[in-house]
Amino acid sequence: MNPNLRKRLLGLLLAFFFCFLGTSAAEGQLPFMPGEMRLFQGQNAQIHSALPVQAEVSVDRPDVIMLNGGKSSSMKVSLGNPLNLSSLSSGEAKLRMKLFGQIPLKTVKVNVIPDLKVIPGGQTIGVKVKSAGILVVGHHQVNTNDSKVSPGEVAGIQVGDLITHLNGTTLKDVKEVGEIVERSGDVKKPLKVTYKRKGKEYFTSLSPAFDKEDKAWRLGLYIRDSAAGVGTLTFFAPEQGVYGALGHVITDMNTQTPIVVGSGEILQSSVTSISKSESGEPGEKRAHFLKEGKTLGNIERNTPFGIFGKMSENPEHSVYNKAIPVAFSEEIKEGSAEILTVVEGQRVERFKVEIVHVSRQSSPETKGLVLRITDPRLIDKTGGIVQGMSGSPIIQNGKLIGAVTHVFVNDPRSGYGCFIEWMLQDAGILQGNQQKNLKAS
């Protein structure tokens, strides 16, 4: 072939190729090539580029990532074939791809995280929690000799506020309030009140009013310091001795305010009956705390992704007796999966579901998955997702991927789930800087 013609053809080919790259770059990505990847130690992965060209690929940390099963830190590959990655140790490595050994094509950052496995739950648990203070759930009028008044409302205290101190005394139990209020009223001195509203601390002065009917000093506030209910255990991490459950925050039933945990515990519970879900009317599990059931763990945190605390051993009735891998959100696929939950007594069972949508989240958000119940047995028993099923672990391809959180009111066979990685972060066993989702570049 004429050398000049060969150069022209090569020039046209390069021009076409770089136009292709330029278009892809303008769109913010190259086909199937992430800018970042996350792997657990010992996990393998592939990079698919679908580019029919030869390239030189190098890794700056061959002790962290192995390329195509070889020990070399640099090799020539065809990008039309998958590039195989093997994670050897925890750390961060950078893969650099160059065309013709000179033209930079792509850099992929790979973050290898220490191996993490947990035991999926599914057990129905009883939840008892006390708030870190006294929650205001309403106002009431005190009938004095002269008029009716709510001293708390006059002092600017609102429904949903958390009273933490009265006259400098830290409040740990609602029973303490009455004694402090009586002393203040008897000496006719206003109370110094410290309270929190949306996480910020405030101070006010409150003068109790004497109720002529009850013959007692009153704040004019309805208050509460505890809550109880049932839910589902999501996972137990045996190496760390911690658990996660529910998949969503516990709120006060009257104010819908998230409860700030002072103390709490989870206990063995047994399902006694189920009210089936119907369109427009979610059902619920009815369960009772076992009288002689042991405490399974404490409650240390109540977050948008559930409750978390310490647990010393895997509870009874587990489907899994050994820990299994967890999946990052980018590994989750639309398709078949299963959930673990209890519909009768204490027996945890597997039920088939379909993952119908996976969100790509760059920060923690509660609605990561949309799932649909497909198992005829579960539909027959519950009508779909019911209250008390929140926290039921979701398993796909042998990995724990998330937890059931909410039901669609008008379609009870469908609902939301959260990604397990956000729960693991709130449990304190997966660091926040390991949570970045992939961003194409």
From TrEMBL:
Q: Which UniProt keywords apply?
A: Hydrolase, Protease, Serine protease, Signal
Provide the E.C. number(s) assigned to this enzyme.
3.4.21.116
> What are this entry's molecular-function GO terms?
serine-type peptidase activity
List, alphabetically, the PROSITE patterns matched: SPOIVB
> Cross-referenced InterPro entries, in alphabetical order?
PDZ_6, PDZ_sf, Peptidase_S1_PA, Peptidase_S55, SpoIVB
Pinpoint the Peptidase S55 domain residues: 200-439
Pfam families named in the record: PDZ_6 (PF17820), Peptidase_S55 (PF05580)
Q: Which residues form the signal peptide?
A: 1-25
Task: Specify the protein name.
Answer: SpoIVB peptidase
Lineage summary: Bacteria, Bacillati, Bacillota, Bacilli, Bacillales
Q: Which gene encodes it?
A: spoIVB
